[in-house]
Amino acid sequence: MQTTSSTAPLQTDYLVKGCGATAMAFVDVMLKETNANFIMVDKRAAPGGHWNDAYPFVRLHQPSACYGVASRALGNGRTDSTGFNQGLLELASGVEVTDYFHQLMRDTFLASGRVSFHPMSDLVGEPGSGSYAIRSMLSGAMQTVNVRKRLVDATMVHTSIPLTHKRKFTVADGVTCEPPNHLTRLAPHYKRFTVLGAGKTAIDSVSWLLSNGAPPERITWVLPRDPWLINRTFFQPGLEHFEQTIGGTARLFEVFATASSVKEVCLKMEAAGTWMRLDSNVWPTMFHGATVTQLELEKLREIKNIVRLGRLQHIDTHRMQLERGERPCDPETLYVDCTASALQHALPIEAAQPVFEDGLVHLHMIRTYQPTFSAALIAHIEATMTDEATKRQLCQPTHMTDTTEDYLRVMAISMRNQAAWNTLPELRSWIRACRLDGLGSTLAQVAKDDAPRREVLARLSAATAPALANLERLTAHTERETAIH
Ligand SMILES: Cc1cc2nc3c(=O)[nH]c(=O)nc-3n(C[C@H](O)[C@H](O)[C@H](O)COP(=O)(O)OP(=O)(O)OC[C@H]3O[C@@H](n4cnc5c(N)ncnc54)[C@H](O)[C@@H]3O)c2cc1C
Is the Cβ atom of 365 under 6 angstroms away from ligand 1? Predict the structure, then answer.
């Protein structure tokens, strides 16, 4: 269905494709630091992107304190006293995150008179073509848009979630395989549960089942690959967590600086308690940056029925067919599909478009695993700098990681970006004052005469250049190995 609008073209400074967290973080800073206006377009019915379709027990896996947009706090800065996250800063639930974005749109963006939001609409037109239109997904009506400054592509993270992704395995009639969105409703009607996938969503589903009384022996976990998990204790903003977070980062950089292989990096990070694995006898080959606590890991280890036969291909009422073999199954099993890739990038990083191009902004992550901080900083750079080459140089894209080697590669890019930001006093101060930058705001709180903490900062600083040099050696070595095999 497609009809052409006869109304005059819409005019805007910035046309924003997508209205998820990164789009919101970008527009939030631009509203404050420029006089520009914005048209935001999303296929979904409300702002907040994939969070609108998240499963009911989802939570952020980083503290709320440094997620969202720069101008508005998320949560109350509470420290959790119960559950797996006890002793650590609160993690917003999916409902809290969506409510936060809905309120922000209504009370700040629309109220400013400088933002218009087009839900249930597809933005059409090749990015960079300069010719764009908004197509209503209900009526098919097309509205042309003239863009004075730039198109902002806020779909670069390519989120893929269980509710909306296309499964890569088949399911026979009579088998119930559902995304975790339906788990809370269906669980009481099933005797056994099989959770499919190795990422954060699968971990959340297993944790949810266990903490709601499902006996571990009735849960099977299909793990195509074992993941390295990051201990969340080491990623907490605030001076009270300085030793773990900043001390932990100093240790990470020291390991980067001295390790002679990727394996040595992993073993040293594991020995430090920062990286963890489900089973000390199984070497993880996946690194998606999921965070858990020690308490949660101990609970997950109660699951003994773990199927490590590669990716799932087919589920029948009595068996599962996997890449490397079969497994018999109880017909009264609920299968929980957590196999969506969560975050992906369509292109290898070498082929990624630059953040700034003529008439375009691509909202890539420019710091590892920090999409909203990255979008906010890109906005600040757009608002305050004019030289395009400098802007591009300050914003080298990182990407989502699949393996430890990927992680080391994006950490090197992220560290080079940080080093470039640190050379510009205004940028450095902006970052340190930004609520989305957990580390910088903690560094800014260290008193001049706080000798023990200053010593940790000195270690961090001393390890940075050697870490970068060694990361290049380590990742060049693994690239050669990949090319040979
Ligand atoms: C379960 C889960 C937990 C997570 N937890 C964290 C966390 O703790 N911390 C963290 O930093 N990150 C976390 N993430 C990563 C998370 O994806 C990002 O934080 C962020 O929400 C990504 O936002 P986005 O705007 O880039 O993408 P999306 O949320 O995917 O938004 C993009 C939007 O673009 C729209 N769109 C696409 N094409 C078009 C088009 N042609 N026209 C109009 N609209 C279009 C889509 O409809 C979508 O709504 C988590 C992700 C998942 C899945």
Answer: no
Candidates 43, 38, 37; CA nearest to 16 is 38
For atom 51 of ligand 1, the residue with the nearest CA is 342
Pocket flag, ligand 1, residue 402 (CB < 6 Å):
no
User: What is the distance between the alpha carbons of residues 303 and 226, in angstroms, rounded to a whole number?
Assistant: 14
Q: Are strands 356-357 and 333-337 parallel, antiparallel or unpaired?
A: unpaired
To test ligand 1's pocket by mutation, which of 43, 91, 368 has the most ligand atoms within 8 angstroms of CB? 43
Cβ(61) – ligand 1 distance below 6 Å: yes
> Is the Cβ atom of 50 under 6 angstroms away from ligand 1?
yes
Q: Is 70 exceeded by the pLDDT of residue 274?
A: yes
Same domain for 137 and 66: yes
Residue 18 in contact with ligand 1 by CB distance below 6 A: yes
C-alpha distances in Å from residue 443, one per residue of 238, 242, 413, 446, 453: 9, 9, 21, 6, 9
pLDDT tens for each residue of 360-408: 999 999 999 999 999 999 999 999 999 999 999 999 999 889 999 999 9
Which residue's CA is the closest to the ligand 1 atom numbered 47? 43
Instruction: Clarify whether residues 142 and 71 are in a common domain.
Output: yes
Percent of the chain with pLDDT over 70: 95
- Among candidate residues 82, 97, 372, 340, the one with its CA nearest the CA of residue 202: 340
Residues 28-62 as b/e (b if ≥16 CB within 10 A, e otherwise) read bbbbeebebbbbbbbbbebbbbbbbbbbebbbbbb
What's the CATH number where 65 sits?
3.50.50.60
Quick check: helix, strand or coil at residue 319?
strand
**Residues 424-444: tens digit of each pLDDT:** 999 999 999 999 998 887 888
Of the residues 337, 357, 372, the one at which a domain ends: 337
The helix (run of H) or strand (run of E) holding residue 376 is helix 371-384
- Number of domains composing the chain: 3
Read off the pLDDT band of 478 (50, 70, 90). low
The domain boundary residue, chosen from 365, 400, 417 = 417
- Could you tell me the pLDDT band of residue 349, with boundaries at 50, 70 and 90? low
Whole domain around residue 180: which residue ranges? 170-228+277-337
Same domain membership, residue 484 and residue 398: no
Answer yes or no: are the C-beta atoms of 5 and 358 closer than 8 Å: no
Q: What is the pTM of this model?
A: 0.95
